[in-house]
């Protein structure tokens, strides 16, 4: 168990992020999560962890806001005194084909999915303990064709994969590993309206569970993954299109 270790999950109020926070708390980490639009869902995550004997706090932080990202790290350190694992899960999906794509949606996607990821990693590793872990949540669209209207989202997630591959070199001297999980379709708010259309495209004939992504994140956060860094791990049921 990791009762002295601390994990910060950016975007931990819902879906994959909430599942990761719950799993890390179950594994003994003291957990901080950030939220931007659903304080009720964030409090549900915290309350569930506390009922099960864990420690958790929720911090309001927009991942498009550099000051808010830094404040989330500072509040985590103030509460728990250290940071061992950072999970960067916050992201947005603004679909649209190139003929109609709005500049505002482009800017928002890049601000959260690329700039925000970089800034969250930068803020976290400044004070992270040696041998710490950074985990980003990308998407299988970085390596597989998605669908019409997904180009901007896919571009942002491909940028994350490349970022992780190269940041591994920056962090290696401190034995901090960084890896990227690339989920395919997972049962979250984002996919709720698309399950019937997506499922036939998955060879396993189902979409993933947030808990399955959380299990991979928990392994990457642990000691057993210490020799893996700079990698992108696709977990998508063999999704094809």
For the biggest β-sheet, the strand order reads: 3-2-1-4-5-6-7
Number of helices: 7
Approximately how much helix is present in the residues? Answer: 40-55%
Largest sheet: 7 strands, parallel
Separation, N- and C-terminal Cα atoms: 41 Å
SSE series = EHEHEHEHEHEHHE
Number of domains: 1
CATH class label: Alpha Beta
CATH topology: Rossmann fold
Give the rounded overall mean pLDDT: 94
**Total number of β-strand segments?**
7
Low-confidence region ranges: none
Structural class: alpha/beta
Computed CA radius of gyration, to the nearest angstrom? 17 Å
Pfam families: adh_short_C2 (PF13561)
Organism: Leclercia barmai
Domain Ketoreductase: 5-184
InterPro entries: KR_dom, NAD(P)-bd_dom_sf, Sc_DH/Rdtase_CS, SDR_fam
Quick take:
The protein has 241 residues and is α/β, with parallel strands linked by helices. The chain contains 7 helices and 7 strands; from the N terminus they run E-H-E-H-E-H-E-H-E-H-E-H-H-E. 41% of the residues lie in helices and 15% in strands.
Structure notes:
This protein is of the alpha/beta class. The protein has one domain: Rossmann fold, CATH 3.40.50. Helices cover 41% and strands 15% of the residues. The chain has 7 helices and 7 strands, in the order E-H-E-H-E-H-E-H-E-H-E-H-H-E. It has helices at 15-26, 39-51, 66-80, 103-125, 151-171, 195-198, 210-221, and strands at 6-10, 30-35, 56-60, 85-88, 133-137, 177-183, 232-235. A 7-stranded parallel sheet has the order 3-2-1-4-5-6-7, sandwiched between helices. It is globular and about 50 Å long. The termini are far apart.
């Amino acid at each position: 168990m990791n009762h002295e270790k601390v994990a910060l999950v950016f975007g931990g109020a819902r879906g994959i992020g909430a599942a990761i926070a719950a799993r890390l708390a179950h594994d003994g980490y003291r957990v901080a999560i950030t939220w931007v639009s659903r304080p009720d869902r964030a409090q549900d995550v915290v309350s569930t962890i506390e009922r099960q004997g864990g420690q958790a706090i929720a911090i309001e932080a927009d991942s498009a806001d550099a000051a808010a990202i830094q404040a989330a790290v500072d509040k985590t350190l103030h509460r728990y005194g250290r940071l061992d694992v950072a999970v960067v899960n916050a992201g947005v999906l603004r679909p649209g084909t190139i003929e109609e794509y709005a500049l505002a949606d482009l800017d928002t996607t890049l601000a959260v999915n690329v700039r925000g990821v970089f800034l969250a990693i930068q803020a976290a590793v400044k004070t992270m303990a040696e041998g710490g872990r950074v985990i980003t949540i990308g998407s299988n669209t970085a390596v597989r064709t998605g669908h019409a209207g997904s180009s901007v989202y896919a571009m942002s997630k491909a940028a994350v994969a490349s970022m992780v591959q190269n940041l591994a070199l920056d962090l290696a001297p401190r034995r901090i590993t960084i890896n990227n999980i690339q989920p395919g379709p997972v049962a979250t708010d984002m996919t709720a309206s698309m399950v019937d259309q997506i499922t036939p495209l998955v060879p396993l004939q189902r979409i993933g569970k947030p808990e399955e992504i959380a299990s991979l994140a928990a392994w990457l956060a642990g000691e057993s993954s210490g020799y893996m860094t700079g990698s992108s791990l696709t977990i998508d049921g063999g999704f094809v299109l």
